[in-house]
Amino acid sequence: MDKIYLDEEGYQNYLKELEQIRKKINMNSKDISEFQSDDAYGDGWHDNFAYEQAIQKENALYFEYQKKLKGLDQIEIITTEKKGHLVEIGSIVELRFDGELETEVYKVTGNTVSNFKNDQMEITLNSPLGKSIFHKKINDSFSYQVDNRKISGKIIDIK
Predict the structure, then answer these.
(1) Percent of the chain having pLDDT more than 70?
(2) Which stretch of 13-22, 28-37, 120-129, 138-147 has the lowest confidence by average pLDDT?
(3) DSSP assignment of 102-144, as one string?
(4) Spelled out in words, what is the top-level CATH class assigned to the domain 92-158?
(5) What is this structure's pTM?
């Protein structure tokens, strides 16, 4: 099993995500009870679209919750002192992807998801790109797969 690398903030966010899923499961269970007992929706299992949808949602939420729960055993909390010459959590990396003239700059985080909404694009260490550049240095090449496509490039700078 692959390790999930997180910093302390990322670990706390992981636990919050787990709690949010649990709350969604509880809310959905209330919906199931309501849809099942409400005469306007039928007999609780036949011809009851709302009830069937709630059951499907419950199954998806349980699957997501179990996957996150199993992930707890895979988490490795990383505390790094930025060395500057290796890509670590907190590093700002400048990358040139093969076939591109321009470079792209990312901040490597120990969070659970990447964030492309800020001025500074952030990638999680657990993303395919994050895993491919972790502990590499300037001028090192990297590559990773997305679907059936291989993406590769070179590390230009690390701050």
Answers:
(1) 86
(2) 28-37
(3) S-EEEEEE-SSS-B-SSSSEEEETTSHHHHHHTT--TT-EEEE
(4) alpha beta
(5) 0.69
List where CATH 3.10.50.30 sits in the chain. Answer: 92-158
What H or E segment, with its residue span, contains residue 155?
A: strand 149-158
CA angle 137, 5, 10 (to 5 degrees): 115
Burial of 132 (0-12, 13-18, 19+ CB in 10 A): buried
Count Cβ neighbours within 10 Å for each residue of 10-21 and write b for 16 or more, e otherwise.
Answer: bbebbeebbeeb
Mean pLDDT across 131-145: 95
pLDDT band at residue 80, thresholds of 50, 70 and 90?
Answer: low
Q: What does the pLDDT look like over 98-109, one tens digit per residue?
A: 999 999 999 998
Residues of the chain with CATH 1.10.287: 4-77
Q: What is the fold, at CATH topology level, of the domain defined by 4-77?
A: Helix Hairpins (1.10.287)
